[in-house]
Amino acid sequence: MKKLIFISTGRCGTTRISEILKDKLPNHKYAVVHQMKFSRLANVLGNIMYYWNDSNRMKKYLYTCIISKYQEGNLFISTDPLTSMIIPKEFIESSEVCLVHIVRDPDSFAQSMYSFSRCRLKSLIAHNIIPLWQPGIWPFENIVNNNILNKYREVANIKNEYFFEHYSRSMNYHQVNMSDLFSTNLLQEIVNKWFGESISVTASD
Fold first, then answer.
1. Dihedral sign, Cα of residue 8, residue 10, residue 13, residue 16
2. Which SS3 state, helix, strand or coil, does residue 160 take?
3. What is the structure's pLDDT at 73?
4. HSE of 170 in the Cβ direction (CA atoms, 13 Å)?
5. What is the pTM of this model?
6. Where does residue 19 rank: exposed (0-12), middle (13-18), buried (19+ CB within 10 A)?
7. Can you tell me the distance from the alpha carbon of 166 to that of 43, in angstroms, rounded to the nearest whole number?
8. pLDDT tens digits for 37-54?
9. Which element (helix H / strand E) includes 77?
10. Using CA atoms, how far apart are residues 105 and 11, in angstroms rounded to an integer?
11. Domain 3-194 coded CATH 1.10.8
């Protein structure tokens, strides 16, 4: 069963992409998900493995468990950035999986991520209390570090380099600019090329 997986640092429009695809694609045929159950845990474990033990066995177990309830009998589309660090090699090397790596300008990402960390209590807790919620940012740095925007720029670079290094060997890997997804026909072209499904994504979308 074909899978389309958007990978990103977060703050790359993935919520809106998910909303558009849910609206445009027949829901009896496609499972489109943005934030999956246990993906917050996957986010932390993915960052831990980045530093200490890049275990494909654990990635395969985690990722398969996380997506299992969504993909049965459906063409599967994930825009969940929290699982982006744990894509196992079995998915990377599969001819049935397309990986779309969304890249956002690091300065814009840093400002957006910092603002997002202040917009609700759960985000504030995640970014300040949970260790390794982001690689290279430690508890309470978001509050006390005057150079936090620079740290978030480093996060963008760390993750994007990791994604390219690990996922570009996929035969179906595509790196795209976030702005192109929202200013051109790129999203509908990706869906049409991969699934053979014709959708119309308008400027108002």
1. positive
2. helix
3. 79
4. 27
5. 0.96
6. middle
7. 16
8. 999 999 999 999 999 989
9. strand 75-78
10. 11
11. no
